[in-house]
Specification:
Length: 61
């Protein structure tokens, strides 16, 4: 199936390529940030820091 994009073919192809590149960069950024945050949480857990959200209202001093 061949599509004719007309005189604006280069603009259309460039726009789709730019959008695909931006989406790929955002996905990569999220993956790297997730790994960084997970690593930082593991370090905090190892050092003995606890999460405040784990306490109930009754446990508050």
């Amino acid at each position: 199936m061949t599509m004719s994009l007309g005189p604006y073919a280069s603009f259309i192809v460039t726009s789709y390529a730019a959008a695909a590149i931006v989406v790929a960069i955002l996905i990569g950024w999220v993956v790297l940030d997730y790994r960084n945050q997970a690593r930082r949480l593991r370090e905090l857990d190892r050092s003995g820091v606890t999460r405040r959200s784990g306490r109930s209202a009754v446990d508050t001093p």
